[in-house]
Write a sequence for this structure.
């Protein structure tokens, strides 16, 4: 295949990066107090290598700022395991209530997901004037703010309803109390249920029906995406999915590669909806690059399930570009968090090229970060300036070529479009013209191999 230079990319990426900053105006900013747990028994944390609680709270504060919330304080408690009632100790819960009053905070955010019981008991301690959130509900709110397409809105709405359904208790507690306490009990019997219990059951039924409807609509989206991928396979275009931790620079990279206009902000989850662009490779070929939603530690399971149709783009890609922010102090843990999510969506065995991004922000005196030493087989780049992009595309092409299938086929003259397809998408090692047709020897993308092997 002929080789052409990709140097036109270098130096132009910075100018092509589209940055838009949105500020919330006209509304009083919420003031949040953060609560983290430092587990003595690391088995209480589901991740293979738990983050230091201080780093996790730093990330939680960044999530809060992304949602438009000001962080005014935080507290950490060392625990063996979650308290069955209040998650943290009851004394610490009282301390949190006192501190938020002193700081004039109106929101408390826990760094772990709270069970429905934890929420009920903590609301009693904190009072009705304080909004109680956990990491999951905060991420869901950010996703709701950033969903731009109908598909994204449907996915986020489904995740929110599935999270909230088991937590529909607080709004009707006062009505249950009016019924003498029997409305919520198993001994209430027919005809003595209180209005709170009746309204709660009605709400659950409404939400249940909405969840069914959302799942049906998302299955239609999933079927549409599947048909679209099938059409792409017929043209033999290799697909490359850009994955990575949120804010690692995935959208900046796609903008650099394809002169795209994907939103870029220094915020977590700035973009949710996948964007696909055609990108020219050094040999003159073309591949489809897709920017996907960023991952994060403790990514809510509801979101992974709701975004199944979108994440299938990752699982079925020919190659994954795992973008890593080499400047982040927890880069190694970020890599592991992404790998865990890839395993959840069935992409653990997909070919991966590690793209070590933000090279322009490294100081020569500091030396290479540990993540660059651990993933030395990757490619170091700056998506902002274009440094290393040409080398990255060459590696992408090499890896895509290793996935091609060798074929030796005689194509009848009446099927000249297949010869043209072989020329455009394959690597020809030998081409002969016979009385029966054109004999082609070489390699084609695996997605196209079936069209030649049936001749």
């Amino acid at each position: 295949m002929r080789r052409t230079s990709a140097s036109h990319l270098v130096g132009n990426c910075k100018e092509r990066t589209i940055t838009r900053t949105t500020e919330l105006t006209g509304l009083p900013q919420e003031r949040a107090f953060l609560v983290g747990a430092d587990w003595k028994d690391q088995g209480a944390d589901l991740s293979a290598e738990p983050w230091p609680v201080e780093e996790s709270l730093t990330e939680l504060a960044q999530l809060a700022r992304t949602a438009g919330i000001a962080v005014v304080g935080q507290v950490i408690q060392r625990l063996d395991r979650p308290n069955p009632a209040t998650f943290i100790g009851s004394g610490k819960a009282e301390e949190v209530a006192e501190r938020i009053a002193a700081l004039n905070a109106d929101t408390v955010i826990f760094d772990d997901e709270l069970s429905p019981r934890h929420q009920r008991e903590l609301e009693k301690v904190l009072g009705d004037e304080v909004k109680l959130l956990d990491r999951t509900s905060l991420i869901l709110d950010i996703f709701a703010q950033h969903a731009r397409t109908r598909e994204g809105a449907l996915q986020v709405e489904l995740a929110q309803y599935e999270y909230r359904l088991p937590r529909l208790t607080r709004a009707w507690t006062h009505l249950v109390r009016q019924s003498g306490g029997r409305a919520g009990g198993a001994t209430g019997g027919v005809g003595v249920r209180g209005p709170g219990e009746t309204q709660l059951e009605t709400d659950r039924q409404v939400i249940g029906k909405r969840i069914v409807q959302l799942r049906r609509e998302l299955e239609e989206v999933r079927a549409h995406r599947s048909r679209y991928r099938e059409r792409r396979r017929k043209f033999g275009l290799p697909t490359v999915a850009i994955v990575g931790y949120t804010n690692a620079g995935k959208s900046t990279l796609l903008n650099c590669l394809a002169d795209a206009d994907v939103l870029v902000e220094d915020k977590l989850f700035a973009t949710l909806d996948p964007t696909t662009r055609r990108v020219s490779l050094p040999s003159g070929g073309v591949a489809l690059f897709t920017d996907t939603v960023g991952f994060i530690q403790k990514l809510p399971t509801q979101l992974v399930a709701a975004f199944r149709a979108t994440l299938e783009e990752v699982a079925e890609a020919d190659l994954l570009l795992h973008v890593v922010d080499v400047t982040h102090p927890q880069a190694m843990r970020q890599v592991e968090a992404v790998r865990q999510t890839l395993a959840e969506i069935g992409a653990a065995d997909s070919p991966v090229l590690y793209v070590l991004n933000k090279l322009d922000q490294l100081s020569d005196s500091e030396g290479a970060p540990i993540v660059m030493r651990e993933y030395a087989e990757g490619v170091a780049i700056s998506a902002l300036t274009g440094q290393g992009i040409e080398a990255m595309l060459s590696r992408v092409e090499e890896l895509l070529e290793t996935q091609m299938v060798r074929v030796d086929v005689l194509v009848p003259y009446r099927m000249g479009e297949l010869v043209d397809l072989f020329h455009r998408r394959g690597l020809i090692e030998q081409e002969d013209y016979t009385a029966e047709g054109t004999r082609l020897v070489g390699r084609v993308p695996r997605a196209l191999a079936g069209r030649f092997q049936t001749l």
